[in-house]
């Protein structure tokens, strides 16, 4: 009994004397309060990519007459990029335009209706004076009505010719491939003299990339779920190039990757002056502090 008491007293004395003799004490590990949010970094890895890519193919098979741009050229929306051989379409458009301006049938119908109207008036006067039978009056009236119908038919034929001319112009315009947006030529695979294939699985002539705005993509841990919202803001810091650029959140994935415990986000970043290239890594800082509480 005396030995146990002596051991306890010795231990208590060592605890009291430890600070005096420089003996380090190991503190107990701190525990996070219950319900506290998991800590996450302030910046996340991201990639700056093109906003959209488009492959240009011909509407149908044909020979490439001219390619008006090279790889790396900047293009504007509506700019002509590729001219396909279009001699047949040009001839069809010229013929349709000529038919739309033809006036012969209309002039003939108008002359005929003028003659039929005068004849009807003359026979009508003779009929009132009992010099022309009723049958002649009926025939003159019928001829006048037929002449009016022929004029209406000629006018309708001219309107149809105008619409056919517009269709021919549209078919001719399809032989010129134009840019659907402002961007750059990412690839050029066709050259003048080669055959252009119009099928969706065949090789395109050009590949265009839209770089304004740029698309920023990042993969975030589940601890960030609820802290980022569509239309929220963020700061993008490209690697190597430096600088800080503003971006807006456009999409937050609702499907998580169970294996890695992550979800994806997409942001749009204006690039009107093409000051940033696509295809580079970056760091991403959200306006909502990572250590803050989830956004309501």
List the helices and strands and how they pair.
Layout: H1 2-21, E1 44-49, E2 52-56, E3 62-67, E4 74-75, E5 80-84, H2 87-100, H3 104-128, H4 134-173, E6 176-178, E7 183-188, E8 195-196, E9 206-210, E10 214-221, E11 233-238, E12 245-252, E13 262-269, E14 280-286
Antiparallel strand pairs: 1-10, 1-14, 2-9, 3-5, 3-8, 4-7, 5-6, 7-9, 10-13, 11-12, 11-14, 12-13
If you had to describe this structure to a student in words, what would you say it looks like?
By secondary structure, the protein is an alpha+beta fold. Among the domains are: 44-51 and 211-286, Beta Barrel (Elongation Factor Tu (Ef-tu), domain 3), CATH 2.40.30; 86-174. Helix content is 33%, strand content 26%. The chain contains 4 helices and 14 strands. It has helices at 2-21, 87-100, 104-128, 134-173, and strands spanning 44-49, 52-56, 62-67, 74-75, 80-84, 176-178, 183-188, 195-196, 206-210, 214-221, 233-238, 245-252, 262-269, 280-286. It has a 6-stranded antiparallel barrel with strand order 1-10-13-12-11-14. A 4-stranded antiparallel beta sheet has the order 2-9-7-4, with no helix packed on it. A 4-stranded antiparallel beta sheet has the order 6-5-3-8, with no helix packed on it. Helix 2 runs antiparallel to helix 4 (134-173) and helix 3 (104-128) packs antiparallel against helix 4. It is elongated. The two termini are 64 Å apart. The model is unreliable at 1-36 and 290-296 (pLDDT under 50).
Can I get a quick summary?
Helix content is 33%, strand content 26%.
Low-pLDDT ranges: 1-36, 290-296
Helix content estimate: 25-40%
Rg measurement, Å: 42 Å
Order of strands across the biggest sheet?
1-10-13-12-11-14
* Shape field: elongated
List how many beta strands DSSP finds: 14
| Estimated structural class | alpha+beta
Distance between the termini: 64 Å
- Rounded mean pLDDT is 83
> How would a textbook summarize the main sheet?
6 strands, antiparallel, barrel
Please tally the helical runs, counting DSSP H or I stretches of 4 or more residues: 4
The fraction of residues assigned to DSSP E strands is 25-35%
- One letter per element, helices H and strands E, the order comes to HEEEEEHHHEEEEEEEEE
